[in-house]
Amino acid sequence: MPHQKGIKLVSQNKKAYHEYFVEETYECGLCLKGTEVKSMRQGRVNLKESFCMIRNGEVFAEGMHISPYEQGNIFNTDPLRPKKLLLHKNEIRKLAGLVSRQGYTLIPLKVYLKDGRMKLELGLCRGKHLHDKRDTAASRDAQREMERAIRQRGRD
């Protein structure tokens, strides 16, 4: 079976952009079982409460819920098991230093299918305070109002 070309978005963590400032993003692979891949291809993955931890020089995605595959029977795994992320060693060292010293956290932002392989976009994030969230919402509303006014002006 030939690999599919291009990128197909499977799931996105919109809550992460509301809760955190995303400083950098990294593309990484996922170590998955066969039934997990089949379930993810159907879009049955939830990233809302997920985060990443660095243990023994390896990065793991915790709290990422992949629903059991319906035809999987005994081969289905625990939906919340930690998934190992595939990154280069120098990237892991850099992330470990930033997370431990400067108060950053690693958050999965999206899962997508790229050329037949499951990829995860990992964000190096810093938490937002309540006033930051309000500022973001206010600027988004102002931008929307400006675009609406421009469209309205073009119609008249």
Could you please describe the fold and organization of this structure?
The strands form two sheets. This protein has a seven-stranded antiparallel beta sheet. A two-stranded antiparallel ribbon has the order 3-6. The mean pLDDT is 86. It is of the alpha+beta class. The protein is globular and about 60 Å long. It has four helices and nine strands. A hairpin with a 2-residue loop joins strand 8 (105-114) and strand 9. The chain starts with 6 loop residues before the first strand and ends with a helix.
The major sheet is characterized as: 7 strands, antiparallel
Overall morphology: globular
Helix amount: 25-40%
What's the pLDDT, averaged over the residues? 86
Strand order of the largest sheet: 1-8-9-2-7-5-4
Number of strands: 9
Keywords:
9 strands, 35% helix, two-stranded antiparallel ribbon, globular, 156 residues, seven-stranded antiparallel β-sheet
Write the layout of secondary structure elements.
Layout: E1 7-12, H1 14-19, E2 20-30, H2 34-41, E3 45-46, E4 51-55, E5 58-62, E6 65-66, E7 83-86, H3 89-102, E8 105-114, E9 117-127, H4 130-155
Antiparallel strand pairs: 1-8, 2-7, 2-9, 3-6, 4-5, 5-7, 8-9
